[in-house]
């Protein structure tokens, strides 16, 4: 159906529009709850024996009255602001640490030939196959029981940073490989030390790749839920994902807070994702499409 | 070359230091265990003897006198109390003023007495030794509290509790630093005079270095083993002395003559089984304790051999020239290694070590409650794997009908496989249809559709999961509202196995189709238009074009995408955990969420580690076959 004259069959548009509506419905639902100013899981309060139309009203993702009360309350009355701040701190530290470790390692892998280089890169690749749950218990024992880093930012940060390293290293190494080596050689002839070359020449040249790597590290930490829920037991140390679950998991159901918090947490990620998706897709398909 | 000349000396030194440190560590651990055992043995012996002397006492006063006499004569007994029913019958503590009733805060004592009584009755009733009838509380650095049943005329009346501070025991004597330091000096000296050449196939210097290491290491270990044996004999002698002294005190309390073989009733383990040197007939026998000691010696000996082998490895690393080469490589590539080191160390500590530690953990029986025990005491070999993989108790048929055991591994595996297949099928089919639709040439509004349809991929998946959980809310959720709108009954989504599975499928389908759509769309756009035009000219139908052009050309993109998505779905923890939580009754748990629950809700760390290891093996097998299949399709 992909050929011939340009055409826009109506049925195709109808099908796509209805499917798209279905797809974005959950998003609209969350937005409606977030702006509804109340906590219940229904968008409007239904009478005892609702009619068809009343039910229809309850399904349409449009709040009964608009209010930003949930946003205000979740940030002021609830400790969500604190959790958000925790997430920001953890994610930023992860980004800085992860990018630093990945840059240095990737530079060495790209520019030096040394014994153990191939094995090291292979080891990074292999580590991606280790299943999360198998790592979870030992990590819990090491971080919480041995190192006593439960309920601290550093416990999460070092684990997030190291889990992000392999991907970042491979990505950055690929980019470093494309930077022509004669720039470095001429710098070396001018008497620049390896450190100078790395910090003054390579890093500035690799800015785009570093930006992508940094965003990847940030999103890894920002969206992570399991490790954070295992490591952070004290309510004041929750990260945003653990906090959002706290609103609606188990015994509480504060859907308004959840919805408002979700909007706050997702907005930056969704915007970043939309901005970056073309790189992501090209990266995924570049190797396979001929 | 300097390195090579010195490699015998450094190698011998480092290897021997490793051997000494590890051997000393093992020896120290075992001998401190033995020492604790001896201390407890002495405490139990004295408490048992004390308790047995009370059996014939006519009243509380006599009991009190006899207890007081024990305290006077046996210096290591700090205090002793006798509890019968709700009464504190006798006590050597001045503040107690026995006999009196137990106070409210002494309830734990009453409970413990009850526990000991029921343990004793269970053992007598079953004619077996299954429950501990002696309670030992050993803080290791203070007096040991031993509680034994207080038996009168064969009936358990209460409990005798004694705080005993045993004398110092010889086992576990550290052994001093003199010998190891001397041996180390000898190793360096011998190494310094040896000349090794790593390039020759056989080299006298190298052989001599190996012999020297073996001699020094084995010498040290034999000395330590000998010391351990001596200490055991010494402590055995100490125990028999205490027995004799206890027998004398027993006689003086007026309880009558020491019954023959009394010692074997006194010197027992926590189950009341005799440990010591004397049989009930009063004859010396090698008791259970001797066997226990053999276990310890055997463990120490085996460890020593393993350590020696390790030391030999270290030595060979040096004298074969590997160390010199490594050092040279390190020096030459110092910058490169410095750049790699931070990331590598992080990966070693937080990725590779945990991985192997997790696998090691799966061979133990570690739970929240015994994780402080030494590793060798938790080791159970393949037990966890046997109980995971060997349990085929999936379905039980009874009069009421068939019951599926949702906790069974194979049920969970089945659910996981069904979960993966259905999800990937849903993702691929929806993604494919949408991509085809959007790829229509000259189609207007493509960009806006694409942006909106990609939205589920962009939203963090735990938010997606919790959102759908809200929409599936049995009472107020919108999905049930829609059902009721059209006159259907509301569904209690999380109460049924199938409906609960559907919640996960819908949620995961929703968030996984955009990935497939985008990947397929990218591939479709890279198919040259003229192929279709040519096909059109040849008179091929749309269906033929799809079959003969689109699908074959999609394959190189689709296969890796499906492979990726299978692994993602197989490990999709968040959806199951946050949407249905595996309800009802764990029926919809997939392998990864099950492993999580075993670890963090049942605190069975080792079992969960074994579970995860099995998951890893399944993924490995999948990966192996998948690469073979992918290779096959690539050649297509």
Tell me about this structure.
Chain A is built from 13 helices and no strands. The longest helix of chain A has 32 residues, at 80-111. The two termini of chain A are 22 Å apart. Mean pLDDT of chain A is 83; it is low at 1-6 and 283-290. Chain A has helices at residues 10-34, 52-59, 69-76, 80-111, 117-127, 132-146, 153-178, 181-189, 194-205, 207-223, 226-231, 240-248, 255-286. Chain A is elongated and about 85 Å long. With 636 residues, chain B is α+β, with helices and mostly antiparallel strands. Chain B has two domains: 2-171 and 209-332, no CATH class; 408-598, MetI-like fold (Orthogonal Bundle). Chain B contains 21 helices and eight strands. Chain B has helices spanning 2-53, 60-73, 107-126, 178-193, 204-252, 262-266, 288-319, 322-332, 334-361, 375-378, 383-389, 409-438, 446-458, 461-471, 478-485, 497-525, 529-538, 542-570, 573-580, 591-600, 605-635; strands spanning 77-84, 87-91, 100-101, 135-137, 144-152, 155-164, 395-398, 401-404. In chain B, the strands form two sheets. Chain B has a six-stranded antiparallel beta sheet, sandwiched between helices. A two-stranded antiparallel sheet of chain B has the order 7-8. In chain B, helix 5 runs antiparallel to helix 7 (288-319). Chains A and B meet through helix 1, helix 2, helix 4, helix 5 and helix 6 of A and helix 9, helix 12, helix 13, helix 14 and helix 15 of B.
């Amino acid at each position: 159906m992909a050929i011939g004259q340009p055409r826009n069959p109506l049925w195709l548009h109808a099908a796509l529009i209805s499917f798209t509506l279905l797809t974005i419905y959950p998003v609209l639902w969350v937005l409606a709850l977030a702006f509804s100013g109340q906590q219940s899981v229904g968008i409007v309060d239904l009478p005892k024996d609702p009619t068809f139309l009343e039910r229809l009203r309850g399904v349409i993702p449009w709040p009964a009255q608009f209010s930003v009360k949930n946003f205000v309350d979740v940030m002021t009355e609830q400790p969500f602001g604190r959790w958000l701040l925790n997430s920001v701190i953890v994610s930023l530290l992860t980004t800085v640490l992860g990018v630093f470790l990945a840059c240095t390692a990737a530079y060495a892998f790209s520019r030096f030939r040394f014994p153990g280089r191939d094995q090291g890169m292979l080891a990074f690749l292999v580590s991606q196959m280790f299943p999360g749950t198998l790592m979870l218990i030992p990590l819990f024992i090491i971080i919480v029981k041995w190192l006593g880093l439960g309920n601290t930012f550093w416990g999460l940060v070092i684990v997030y940073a190291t889990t992000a390293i392999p991907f970042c290293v491979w990505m950055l190494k690929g980019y470093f490989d494309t930077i022509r080596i004669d720039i470095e050689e001429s710098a070396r002839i001018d008497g620049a030390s390896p450190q100078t070359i790395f910090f003054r020449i390579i890093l500035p040249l690799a800015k785009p790749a570093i930006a992508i790597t940094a965003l990847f590290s940030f999103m890894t930490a920002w969206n992570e839920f399991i490790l954070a829920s295992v490591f952070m037991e004290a309510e004041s140390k929750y990260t945003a994902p653990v906090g959002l679950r706290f609103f609606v998991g188990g015994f509480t159901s504060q859907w308004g807070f959840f919805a408002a918090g979700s909007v706050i947490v997702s907005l930056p990620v969704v915007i970043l994702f939309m901005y970056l998706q073309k790189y992501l897709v090209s990266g995924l398909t570049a190797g396979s499409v001929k | 070359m300097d390195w090579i000349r010195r490699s015998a000396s450094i190698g011998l030194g480092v290897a021997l230091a490793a051997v000494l440190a590890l051997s000393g560590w093992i020896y120290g651990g075992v001998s401190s265990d033995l020492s604790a055992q001896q201390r407890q043995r002495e405490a139990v012996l004295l408490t048992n003897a004390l308790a047995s002397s009370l059996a014939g006492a006519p009243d509380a006063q006599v009991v009190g006198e006899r207890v007081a006499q024990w305290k006077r004569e046996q210096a290591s007994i700090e205090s002793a109390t006798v509890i019968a029913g709700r009464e504190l019958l006798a006590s050597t503590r001045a503040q107690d003023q026995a006999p009196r009733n137990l106070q409210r805060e002494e309830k734990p004592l009453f409970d413990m007495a009850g526990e000991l009584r029921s343990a004793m009755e269970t053992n007598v009733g079953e004619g077996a030794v299954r429950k501990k009838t002696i309670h030992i509380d050993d803080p290791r650095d203070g007096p040991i509290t031993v509680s034994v049943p207080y038996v009168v005329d064969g009936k358990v009346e209460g409990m005798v509790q004694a705080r005993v501070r045993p004398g110092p025991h010889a086992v576990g004597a550290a052994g001093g630093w003199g010998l190891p330091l001397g041996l180390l000096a000898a190793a360096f000296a011998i190494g310094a005079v040896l000349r090794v050449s790593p390039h020759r196939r056989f080299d006298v210097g190298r052989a001599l270095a190996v012999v020297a290491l073996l001699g020094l290491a084995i010498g040290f270990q034999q000395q330590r083993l000998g010391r351990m044996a001596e200490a055991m004999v010494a402590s055995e002698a100490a125990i028999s002395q205490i027995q004799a002294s206890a027998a004398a005190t027993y006689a003086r309390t007026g309880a009558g003559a020491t019954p023959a073989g009394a010692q074997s009733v006194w010197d027992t383990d926590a189950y009341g089984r005799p440990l010591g040197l004397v049989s009930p007939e009063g004859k010396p026998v090698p008791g259970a304790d001797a066997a226990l000691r053999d276990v310890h010696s055997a463990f120490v000996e085996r460890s020593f051999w393993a350590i020696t082998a390790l030391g030999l490895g270290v030595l060979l690393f040096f004298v074969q020239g590997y160390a010199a080469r490594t050092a040279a490589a390190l020096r030459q590539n110092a910058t490169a290694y410095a750049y790699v080191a931070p990331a590598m160390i992080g990966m070693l500590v937080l990725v590779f070590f945990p991985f192997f530690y997790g696998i090691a953990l799966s061979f133990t029986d570690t739970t929240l409650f015994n994780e402080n025990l030494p590793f060798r005491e938790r080791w159970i070999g393949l037990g966890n794997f046997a109980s995971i993989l060997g349990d085929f108790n999936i379905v039980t048929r009874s009069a009421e009908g068939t019951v599926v055991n949702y906790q069974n591994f194979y049920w969970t595996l089945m659910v996981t496989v069904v979960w993966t297949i259905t999800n990937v099928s849903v993702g691929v089919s929806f993604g494919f249809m949408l991509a085809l639709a959007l790829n229509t040439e000259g189609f207007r509004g493509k960009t806006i559709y694409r942006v909106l349809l990609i939205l589920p991929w962009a939203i963090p998946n735990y938010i997606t999961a919790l959102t759908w959980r809200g929409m599936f809310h049995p009472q107020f959720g919108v999905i049930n509202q829609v059902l009721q709108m059209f006159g259907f009954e509301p569904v209690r989504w999380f109460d049924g196995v199938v409906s609960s599975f559907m919640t996960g499928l819908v949620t995961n389908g929703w968030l996984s189709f955009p990935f497939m759509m985008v990947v397929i769309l990218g591939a479709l756009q890279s198919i040259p238009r003229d192929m279709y035009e040519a096909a059109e000219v040849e008179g091929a139908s749309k269906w033929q074009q799809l079959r003969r052009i689109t699908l074959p050309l999609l394959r190189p993109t689709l296969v890796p995408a499906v492979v990726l998505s299978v692994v993602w779905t197989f490990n999709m923890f968040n959806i199951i955990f946050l949407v249905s939580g595996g309800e009802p009754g764990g029926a919809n748990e997939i392998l990864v969420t099950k492993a999580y629950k075993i670890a963090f809700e049942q605190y069975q760390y080792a079992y969960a580690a074994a579970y995860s290891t099995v998951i890893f093996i399944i993924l490995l097998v999948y990966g192996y076959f998948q690469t073979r299949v992918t290779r096959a399709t690539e050649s297509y």
